[in-house]
Each structure stands twice: as C-alpha cells, then as structure tokens.
Amino acid sequence: MENPIKPLIIGLTGGIGSGKTTVANAFAAKGIELVDADVVARQVVAPGSAALQQIVDHFGPNMLLADGSLDRAALRQRVFSHAADKDWLNALLHPLIRQKMQDELAAASSPYVLFIAPLLLENQLQSYIDRLVVVDVTEQTQLARTLLRDGGSEQQVAAIMAAQVDRTQRLAAADDVIDNSAGPEQLAPQIDALHQRYLKLAAQRR
Ligand code: ATP
C-alpha cells in the first residue's frame, strides 16, 4: 500500500465497539495526530457549509433541525427509499469528504498520522494509507461492549455488525493487529510497540 502523500499514514479500523476510539486516544496521547473519517463526514455538512445548503435546496428545509444543523435521520429516511436521491447525495458528498480527508492527512505534522476509518475496508479507502492496523476482539465482545456503552437491542447491534466486513476479512487485510480482548493494561504495551515501529518506518521515509 503506497501513497504519494507525506507523512506516513497509518489506517486504523475495527468493527463497532472494538475499541478504535480507545486505541486512537492512546496514540494521540503520544502526540500523534488523528484524522477521523466520521468527523470529516460530519464537517462537510456543518451549518454554513455549501454542501448543507445544496442539500436544503435539493430536498427542502425539512432536512434541517431547529438549530440549523442537518437532520440526519430525515435525510437517511429520504434517501433510504429513493435510489436516485441516494446517488445524488453520494455524488455531492463523497468527493468533498475524500478531498478533506486527503487535505487533513497531508497537513499532519506529527511523525506519522493515524487515519481512523471504521468503514475503511467497506469504503475501499486502502489507497489513502501506507499501513493498516486492526483493533480486534471477538464478535461477542463487540456486542457486549457496544450494548454496555450505547444500550439498545442486541438485534440493532447485530444488524450494524452484519453490514460491516467480518472479522476474518478485517484480519486478512491487516498489517498489524491490536488485540483488545482483555483489559486496558493489555493495550498499552501493544500500542507502545507499534508506536516505536511506526516512528522507525516514518524515519526511513525521510
Ligand atoms: P464504534 O465503532 O462504535 O465507534 P469503537 O471501536 O470506537 O466503537 P470504543 O468506543 O473505543 O470502540 O470502545 C467500545 C466500548 O468498549 C467503550 O465503552 C470503551 O470504553 C469500551 N472498551 C474499549 N476497550 C476496552 C477494554 N479493553 N476493556 C473493556 N472495555 C473496553
């Protein structure tokens, strides 16, 4: 996985509730900059953005909440049953999201940058990264931790898991794996070791 953009870009992915945020925060504590695909996707439709205005022009003012932000539930509902609307929305947002992700990755000033993308494999974003680290737990652990964090039903979480690539596919795509099946004390040494490896790889590029 080669990319022409400096600095070294490490992709971080994992299924729902696997511990991506927990792991990313540990890298951030070491001074590593993070670019989060979900955050970027929200920023491109922030209040005042050209994309939000285009969505309102296209679908009407009922796409806005009272505070002027995007009503994601209304938009999801609208495109769910209208394929042409979904295509229109994707054609608007995908180039904007991709450009902003690239800009932020290229602008990072830490020795390497962590690109957090829960759907990195599903959305085929491998060309953005130099190396992929997967946060790995069993499906039972994903389910248990997500329910503990968010509440909701087992069926809801299972449906989200079913829409994501499965554990085997994720592990097959991984260059590095962080085993998050045990407690936080198990994470630190793995993250320390990867941090050292990534610093070395970053130094080799310079
Ligand atoms: P999502 O894809 O849903 O955003 P995520 O991959 O970012 O999830 P986290 O939010 O980091 O996952 O972790 C899921 C939940 O599990 C959180 O409540 C977190 O505090 C908890 N958790 C993470 N790692 C561990 C661990 N090693 N032991 C126990 N709980 C953990």
From TrEMBL:
Family statement: Belongs to the CoaE family.
UniProt keywords, alphabetically: ATP-binding, Coenzyme A biosynthesis, Cytoplasm, Kinase, Nucleotide-binding, Transferase
Record carries keyword Coiled coil: no
Protein name: Dephospho-CoA kinase
Enzyme class: transferase
InterPro entries documented for this protein: Depp_CoAkinase, P-loop_NTPase
Reactions catalysed, as given in the entry: 3'-dephospho-CoA + ATP = ADP + CoA + H(+)
Residues annotated as transmembrane: none
UniProt GO MF annotations: dephospho-CoA kinase activity
Species assigned in the record: Alkalimonas collagenimarina
Database matches in PROSITE patterns: DPCK (PS51219)
Binding positions (ATP): 17-22
Known function: Catalyzes the phosphorylation of the 3'-hydroxyl group of dephosphocoenzyme A to form coenzyme A.
Annotated localization: Cytoplasm
Statement: the UniProt record of this protein carries the keyword NAD: no
Pathway, per record: Cofactor biosynthesis; coenzyme A biosynthesis; CoA from (R)-pantothenate: step 5/5
Principal location class: cytoplasm
Enzyme Commission number: 2.7.1.24
